[in-house]
Amino acid sequence: MRLGAWLLSKGKITEDQLQRALQHQQFFGGRVGTSLIKLGYVDEDTLGEYLSDVSGAPYASPSRLDSLTAEVLALVPARLAAQYRVIPIGAEGRRLRLAMRDPKDLIALDEIAFLTGMSIEPNVATEFRIQQALERYYQVASTPVVPLTGAAPVPRAAATESVPPAPAKQATRSEVGLDGLPLDAEPDASLLGGTLRGLPQESDGPDGAAPPTSLQQWRIAQREIPDEIPEPPGPSQRTVYATGPAAVAALASPVEQVDPPPPPPAVATAPETSLEASSRRLQRAETRDEIFEVLLDFASAHFRRSALFVVHADRVSGWGGRGPGIDSARIRQVQVALDRPSLFALLRSGADHYYGPVNDQPANTRLFLDLGFPAPERALLVPLLIKERPTVVLYADNAADLATTPDIPTLRRLLAKASLALEILILKNKIASR
Questions:
Q1: Is residue 212 part of a domain?
Q2: Same domain as 285, residue 427
């Protein structure tokens, strides 16, 4: 439910106040929640009530995040806190309370539960308050956001594993809007539904080239570096002397030196995409993203387009994709509710895959509008299961090509291997953290 409709249904504002806030937003810009607070119609506690209602989780108020002990903070390493944007706010026995921006992020809840050995009680907090706590307790800088004004993105600092003591002086709490951002914040890319990922960063190198922004770019860059740097030619290579009658003349005037031709430039080759090669890559994978890259590499070799979606309790969200018309940064902003008829209905039915036509349903129409390419004749969706629960969905299609039949059994075998790789990775991280 949208914020305005929720406020009206709860009697928090009147229709006239909502219309005034919309007019204020149209005139001054920004977000309607900011306008509602500036006009004095609602406060931040109202936002907390709204977030708690729509998520079904308790609300972690700003005061709850103000004074956290080092013992509680140490329960979640900075790496995990930064990756999943969570803050530990309390513990009772083997039960850990987390403040999260998304209390229904099953992947985050499962991994943190594995690594800590504790059951998780999620609480919801605004994005602004989560970021304040990450900066204060873990020294994690804000996620890169590209403002609509065209300012350059700010690189995100690397999180450290240590938890420094909280500063003695309490930071002054700034007034925030219903979107969780300060009232005086400029409109930015978060208005589009989330931080834009995969955008180029400022150049760090002397030649002005942007650093790699993805694992695939990093691998290509590594392949372009020669294994050995050629040695300069030695004296025996640089001077050639004649033999026989012309020896005297040759000794007086050596033949012009000849340098060996330079080695041919390294050529970046695509990763192997057979089931065996993909299995070996899964075995070597050290992060979740590497495992996802293997799945997309394999699918892109057998389908025209492919994409991965992460499953949450009430929706799926895009992770990345390959193929014509695919923009991974755009896919990361795609979300599909699971309570509406769509291609993702197989998650509710428990089917092991879906391969068939794309029905003319509103949710499907919106899905392909958000993805940025037309709906294909047929689509394939195969879930990846962890603990018998769908965690990720692989989407693939061949556009208008109906002659090619997908090899679904092989694809399911690969997903089963990827599921095992994810579980092993979680266990490895759990062992390393103890």
A1: no
A2: yes
Cα atoms found within 13 Å of the Cα of residue 74, Cβ hemisphere only: 7
Model confidence over 324-342: pLDDT tens digits? 988 888 999 999 998 888 9
Sign of CA dihedral 101, 83, 188, 67: positive
Segments of the chain with pLDDT less than 50 = 143-174, 178-179, 186-257, 267-268
Token pair, residue 307, equals 């994409």
Domain CATH for 300: 3.30.450.40
What is the C-alpha separation between 47 and 289, in angstroms, rounded? 33
What's the structural domain count of the chain?
2
| Cα angle: 145, vertex 147, 148; to 5 degrees | 140
Quote the CA–CA distance of 52 and 306 in Å, as a whole number.
35
Q: Inter-axis angle of helices 106-116 and 408-433, to 10 degrees?
A: 40
Number of helices (H) and strands (E) in the chain: give both, helices first: 17, 9
On whether both 320 and 429 belong to a single domain, the answer is: yes
Buried-exposed string 414-426: b where 16+ CB fall within 10 A, e elsewhere: bbebbbebbeebb
pLDDT at 234 (0 to 100): 44
Residue-range definition of the domain harbouring residue 366: 275-433
Statement to judge: residues 185 and 51 lie in one domain: yes
Query: In the numeric block, which tokens belong to residue 21?
Result: 């806030």
CA distance 347 to 341: 11
Measured distance between the N- and C-terminal CA atoms of the chain, rounded to whole angstroms: 42
Whether pTM exceeds 0.70? no
CATH number of the domain that residue 127 is part of: 3.30.300.160
Residue 120 maps to a domain: yes
